[in-house]
Amino acid sequence: MNSSPDSTDSDNAPQYLKDSRQKQFLSVFSRDEAKERFTSYLNLKPLGSESVSLGESRGRILASDIISPIDVPGFDRSNVDGFALQSIDTASAQEEDPASLVINGESLLPGKSPTIVVRPQTATPISTGGIVPRGADAVVMIEDTDVVDSESPPRIAVTRSVPPGNMISFAGSDIAKGETVLWAGTPITSREIGVMASLGLEQVAVRRRPQVAIISTGDEVVEPGQPLLLGSVYDSNAAILSAAVQECGGEPILLGRVRDDQELLREIVKQGLQYDLVLLSGGTSKGAGDLSYQVVRELQNPGIVAHGVALKPGKPICLAVTNGKPVVILPGFPTSAIFTFHEFVAPVIRQFAGIPETAARKVRAQLPARVHSDKGRTEYVLVRLFGDAERRLAFPMGKGSGSVTTFSMADGFVVIPQHVEIVDAGEFVEVSLIDEEIQANELVIIGSHCAGLDRVVSSLRQTGCAVSVMHVGSEAGLMAVERGECDLAGIHLYDPQTGQYNTPYLNENLELIEGYRRMQSFVFRKDDDRFSGANKDNFLRKVSKQSDLSMVNRNSGSGTRILIDRLMSEAGIHRPPGYSMQVKSHNAVSAAVLQGRADWGVAIQSVAESYGLETIPIRNEHFDFVVRRENRQTIPIQRFVAELQKPELRASLQQMGYEFVTDSECKNE
Q: Which of 342, 493, 530, 577 is buried most deeply by CB count within 10 Å?
């Protein structure tokens, strides 16, 4: 009588008979079910941060937003070698009839502070990078001048007219103080290092790289460089996985090859558990000599969560978690190992490292031959691509999961769902490209810059939403939304005819999302007694009576410029000194006043106060968001609105000086 497999005789059977008996997986999970079981026991968040020197930061991931502590440039800077002057003095200048200006008695080299104010009909020599002196609102290139040193005092002949702001980079025009210039989660390259260096940063907070212990198993595995005996294979998986871990933002810890010794393997696995993740290569099946499974099944809390997944290649993968730490046994065959690594392990490493997911680039192609697939298993078919976009063919690669070269030679892969058995020749399929990846942007915001908007975007990014932002000003942002070039625009446009913000600029295609209020203020230096007794109502009349007070203006088209012109019109003031000096940000206004190149201006109160300036509030302006009506209910826009309405975010913005009001209060403004 034959003994049953569970009989004592079977337990005492020779080893070769035990090895001959097929040992099936207890259960086989679908790909999605296995992922869910695996990740449900993991805390998929960045593991923390560490500080490294700027020179060591390349290739790392920023752990926090980089908010500029300074303006770049920190002063109004000349872009060329030439002469700093008042643009109005060149209004009629031309080759045949040049403007004649007296040369001031100093030369402004980079780093030298000006001592002479540029008066009408005068000009100061200035080098590229020099500080633009008080009184000047433009720089003329030296090529457009001729020095007339035969006269006393010496003069220059200017042969072309220049507009206000010509060849000047105003303070904060590149980077504004308080501006978020880099976002948490950004990979650091030479470009980001250049930005941080320009801010004077010596140390940078980066996300800690997850340490991944890699263990190769099996008597047949030989380390590269050693003689290869018959029946043995070189350990290519350790090299492949090590590189793949680095590509995902992790740090590979190679614990070496472990022969088929269960006790030794147990000790190496215990050593590996001191790191953030443990990867074993080989020994995941239930056949003879597969000791990895025997060791890993001893783990607890919860231990193995999935052993056997309906994949081809990669069915034998074993997923385990012990005390919140992932332990994965990858199949020994290279193609199976790398596919299952990217399917189950790579996303975990990226989330531990705080690296955003990227969308694989896909192309449409036609299969030239029929492909058969095992029903009940999701199959990855590696393909080579030939042809062009008009007729692109995807040829399946016939090599099996044991091939080392299959993955390296493939252009991409086709996913065949688990319930599909045949894909006929001539059918079109989507090919996921292996080497070409793009980062998808869920939400594109173009418009006016605001530190408050930076805070909203930062909070939204922390939820995993990929946001791209470009600062082009309110009017340009409004037009970008209208043309469908972006999802959202931040605007603060005042309409003097209606006395309302933003709403009059909408049409039937656009809709307004209420944002917050920012206090516009007159700003000046605290130690300037010339503004003594000034208030909101008399400020402009007071400054207009003092010819030595010079303003700094905002650029045409900006919401602040519209407000300034309205206030001046109501006060009966026309082009006060400095009116033609136009800058493009509240930071540049504040910097010009603080550094004495101007005496007063109009800026957001919170920005001016960060520069230590005195402020006289004028009125709350509305910083709102415009969206195309047809896109109002899209998921990215809804996520933005939900983020903006979170109490904790609103409290953060209120601490920055911004206000939120109810609909009834808005009507009464």
A: 493
Q: What is the pTM of this model?
A: 0.72
Same domain, 190 and 237: no
The domain tally of the chain equals 5
Structural domain including 407 reads 359-438
> Which tokens go with 128?
């590229």
Question: Which among 198, 196, 179 is positioned nearest to 188, based on CA atoms?
Answer: 196
pLDDT tens per residue across span 407-462: 666 778 888 887 788 888 888 988 888 765 535 578 888 888 888 999 999 999 88
Which of 374, 393, 394 has the alpha carbon at shortest distance from 382?
394
Mark whether 369 and 347 lie in a shared domain. Answer: no
**255-280 tens-digit pLDDT:** 888 877 888 888 999 999 999 999 98
Rg value, the chain, Cα: 34
513-552: pLDDT as tens digits: 999 999 999 999 999 999 999 999 999 999 999 989 999 9
**DSSP conformation letters of 111-167:** TPPP-S---TTEEEEE-TTPBPPTT--EEEEGGGEEEETTSSS-EEEE-S---TTTT
Q: Does residue 457 contact residue 467 with C-beta atoms inside 8 Å?
A: yes
* Claim to verify: residue 118 and residue 254 sit in the same structural domain: no
